[in-house]
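Handoff note, outgoing to incoming analyst
You'll be picking up this chain. Sequence as last confirmed:
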Amino acid sequence: MIHFFLLQNRQGQTRISKWYSSFEHEEKKKLQSEIYRILIQRPSKYTNFVEFRKYTLVYRRYKGVFFTICCDPSDNEMSMLEAIHLFVECLDEYFVEVCELDLVFGFYKVFSLLDEFLMGGELQETSKKVILSRMTYLADVEKKS
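Most recent structure output, in case you need it:
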């Protein structure tokens, strides 16, 4: 199960966070800070998997933004890494060359895309074509209303 999904920039600012497990607000802030410190200090030659408390962090850095999934240690880390890559590909195609500002100003679209992708802490859809067609449909519905 995925417990949370974080997008953080190089300065440690959390741009997007989606929580699938219950955490207190102060605990969320503490987790975000700890995770940022771990990832920023980690050499790039190491793997993209980190044992963290009773969880496993799977992360990938794209264009200065850390995409992090926190999952159970029993989950397949490679599938989580592929899930991050698929999410980035969907973002890149939906926003056309996505950048950090797209994440900040189009956060509601990022959350919609994330909801098409993950549901309740589990992977819901793994087809980029299906995800993007749903996002196009939602954009069309938004324009009509």
